[in-house]
Amino acid sequence: MFALAWRNIWRQSRRSMITILAMACGAAVCMPMMSFMDGMFATMFDVAVTQQAGHVRVEHPDYPVTNSMFDTMVDAEKKLEALEALPDASAVTWRAYGAGLLGTDKKSMGAVLVGVDPVRESRVTPTETMLKEGSWLTEPGQILLGYGLADELSASIGGEVVIMTQASDGSIGAGTYTVAGLVRSGNAMRDNQGAWLSLADLQELLFIENQVHELVLLASGGRDHVDTLKADVVAAVDEGVLVRTWYEADPQIAEMLKMGQQQSNIMLVVVFFLAGFGVLNTMLMSVFERTRELGVMMALGTRPREVIRLILMEGFLLSVMGVVLGGLLGGGLVYLICVQGLDLGYGDFEMSGVVFPSRMRGVFHINHAISVFVSMVVISILAALWPAWRASKLEPVEAMRAD
């Protein structure tokens, strides 16, 4: 059966090659496009979720609404220890927030102050990729500035920045800090208005000793295990705090990621339709041209189900050759996009508060490639069903009389 199907395919080599090339081009285009979109949404997820919201966050119930420095959590250290003991949590950190006036000897402007635990934060946030210049926080009295904020203040590495703010007790908090590095987080607001200090420095500045505004966790199994981690967190911490997943904390990003997946699915549907239509056309033409031959085969004892198997085998072989060729072509394009990146040609751009670099790099997921290949083979076999069924219903005497 295999040998006969293989021979039948190449009886009309030009038509078969057109069908194979059409499927190969579909797969070759589909793979790098999916890789590019996965890279874009991975960047968005990293900036908006990993660096900020985390997979799961714990905070004062009123803080998401008020953003007030008074809405802090008590017994934060006890909660931190309990959360770090969770097996489903790969990393945990705590943060505090405030607002203040930052100034240099040339200019001053308002900024959002973020207090972080330098050691724990580096386990949650990719600090090495966030830093545009300088180094991460290593000792008290240091500060990191968003590169946009640093430009506005004319601040540089090693320079000093003065912070003035209102402390929680009503007094004026003030301090002088040395610029250790400039941050390019990818979040437009934070890069233009953000300043990072050690948690202890910000707690002292705001007079909120041993208090934090949020605890942030990453799930060991990635974002697919977020709901499990949330359930563990709820059981581990006391009542009176708000526990939210990243998609509950930032529904806009969750909706955009969902839309991105839908766009990928639509693209796959279009490619599969074209591939299936090509196979359907090829198999129909093949059946029409071989009507007399199929009639002779059936007259000699070939059963209808064997005719169906023959036509389906031809469709299967066409799809496999198309998928293999498409995988080779698409794999080369995916390699270029993932390793060298695709230069969009018009500089960094912002979308939904996330700054994307001009040269975007894709992300390759083997399961996406497998789904493309398997789906294309299945669609091709399904497209060959009608021609196969039509061939099996031929009457031998009438088929042998056909021109």
Could you characterize the architecture of this molecule?
The chain is α+β, with helices and mostly antiparallel strands. 56% of the residues lie in helices and 20% in strands. It is built from 17 helices and 14 strands. The strands form three sheets. It has a six-stranded mixed barrel, surrounded by four helices. The chain is elongated.
Mean pLDDT equals 82
Shape: elongated
Radius of gyration: 31 Å
Low-pLDDT stretches: none
Q: Major β-sheet, in short?
A: 6 strands, mixed, barrel
- The secondary structure category is alpha+beta
Q: What is the spatial order of strands in the main beta sheet?
A: 2-3-8-5-7-6
Query: How many structural domains does the protein architecture include?
Result: 2
Cα(first) to Cα(last) distance is 25 Å
Strand content: 15-25%
Helix content: 55-70%
With helices defined by DSSP (H or I, 4 residues minimum), what is the helix count?
17
DSSP, total strands = 14
Short key terms for the protein model shown above:
single chain, 403 residues, alpha+beta, 2 domains, six-stranded mixed barrel, two-stranded antiparallel ribbon, 14 strands
